[in-house]
Amino acid sequence: SVPASIASALSSGARRGLLMKGGAVIEVAARTTAVVFDKTGTLTAGRPRITEIVPFGGTEKAVLSLAAAIETGSSHPLALAILERAKADGVTALPSTGAKALAGRGAEAFVGGETVAVGSPRYADERGVLEAAAREAIARLEADGKTVVAVFRPGKLVGVIALRDEPREDAADAVRQLKALGISSTMLTGDNARTAAAISGGLGMSYRAELMPEDKVAAIREMTAAERVMMVGDGINDAPALATASVGVAMGSGTDVALETAQAAILRNRVTDVAALIRLARAAMGNIR
Ligand code: ADP
Ligand code: MG
């Protein structure tokens, strides 16, 4: 039978929006030595907004109408921000077909008889469309903690779009609380290293950047050799990482896939609830001994 202190921790946690799927989760959570956070939607609210549109040759409007054409139908937070801005500015998307996501890289579609794309600077570079002036503009925006995406046609950069996704209000406090418990915090992101450094530095935590979904799993697997790792995430693409960690925790605002895969959930979307969950688990285990 379940020890009384475990049963009471499960129910008092549930009342505070700290959901754990069974007593075994408490045992593992209590021994957490490192917490790994997904960036977008977990440490940040996941609602990026466009701050700058930098055209290369044409107009801001041309960049936006092409980007919107590609992102039509996409539910990625960056796509939603682009579509929202186009709508707010009264910019109509160019007609497009075959729009599809390129996981961890961007999205593409056929527009005006050619394949056009919106994607990470790294992906744009792989496609050979970044020249010195573009690289400089991108580096400057990224050093400011902004996420930059490039809009390009075959062999030609059309423009770059900078977006900012603000950290959740309590994210820095959460890192401090975990530190007080002797637990390290690391941010994992598909975003570039400059943006990651600017955001994680402000929160007092370390980071691993430019990770493809499978790299996030590998990073966690690596860490679990020496640490007991709690992974906190919200997205469909976080599910494999949540499953690989010693214990996976889903944000309540997250996708169903994340909530199903994780062994625990923090329903009120407060990052500090990660520390609260660990304190609760430690107290429950302390009462057994
Ligand atoms: P994260 O780890 O921040 O959730 P993703 O793995 O979803 O990021 O994406 C990594 C990078 O790929 C983004 O920072 C962006 O540059 C690019 N990207 C992915 N999807 C899109 C999209 N739909 N539109 C534009 N860029 C995208
Ligand atoms: Mg996310």
TrEMBL record:
Q: Which domain of life is it from?
A: Bacteria
**Protein's name in the database:** P-type Zn(2+) transporter
Provide the family line.
Belongs to the cation transport ATPase (P-type) (TC 3.A.3) family. Type IB subfamily.
For this record, the Gene Ontology CC terms, alphabetical, are:
plasma membrane
Q: Which UniProt keywords apply?
A: ATP-binding, Cell membrane, Membrane, Metal-binding, Nucleotide-binding, Translocase, Transmembrane, Transmembrane helix
Acetylation is among the record's keywords? no
* GO molecular function terms listed in the Swiss-Prot or TrEMBL record: ATP binding; ATP hydrolysis activity; cadmium ion transmembrane transporter activity; metal ion binding; P-type zinc transporter activity
Q: Where in the cell is it found?
A: Cell membrane; Membrane
